[in-house]
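FIELD: query
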Amino acid sequence: MTQRGLIGVFDGSGGSGSSPAWQAPDGEQRTGAWVGSRVARLAVDCWFQEVTAAGEAADPEYLKGYLDFFHERAPQRRSKIVGRMRRQLPTTLAAIEYRLQPEDKLEGRALWAGDSRAYLLDPEAGLQVLTRDHTEESDALELLRSDPPMTNTVCADRDFFVQEHAFEFPLPCVLLTATDGFFGYVHTPADFENTLLSNLQDANSETEWADLIRREVQGYTADDASLGLVALGYKDFAHLRSEFAARQEFIAGFCRKNRPTGADPASAVRAWQNGTWHDYRTGYEAYLPTPQEEQA
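FIELD: result
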């Protein structure tokens, strides 16, 4: 088993990057958001290969240098429409760089820009977020309700930053990264965990688990959706599934409890969301990092 790894997702910002930026040989045009997400993925991949080969730490400023370099050289079309929300090759980034350590420990860092997220999935505590969205609103439930604009994204024409959050967890554990197509269209933050774990219990392999998650998310999302996941320290898939069986039973009941029906008024739905989030929030935010401007 390799001692170091990386997972990540990239979500081109379709609203601010909707202008055409590249034309394929067959004539099909691609937007700046499409190009930006793929350029960012290539930059992160090259950065990780270099730091791994050199045995260096996952420095976010070094990663930003790679992102700047690749975006400056990517194909672009300058739009005549200039405004605060317009971006060249805009994309979110959420990645986890991890290293296996002696005595069954895992060290790493979450690296992100925008509103894609990184998580720890734990059999006892459930889903725990490792990143804080770069938006003016930080409450996960209010983010579901309002979908505010991002204050920071990777792009080619304006300054941005890559935030980091270091961690150390005991093995075994599950790490994952996801774009908002997975978690941005559910009723409460707990529903995303329930989607992950209910499909885990129904699957017989990691491939089937991925397929079941994909099918369910396609039924509720209104956006592109990408997810990266790695399970570390488990003997096999059956061991992983058994370790999360009790948590899945709990979270399924938690999400069903007092859940309004379609006939209930909006006020009842809102009250249920508030109560569910109140009871779920402490565990979910156990590793929530501080805002960038508050970091030393």
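FIELD: remark
The chain is about 40% helix and 20% strand.
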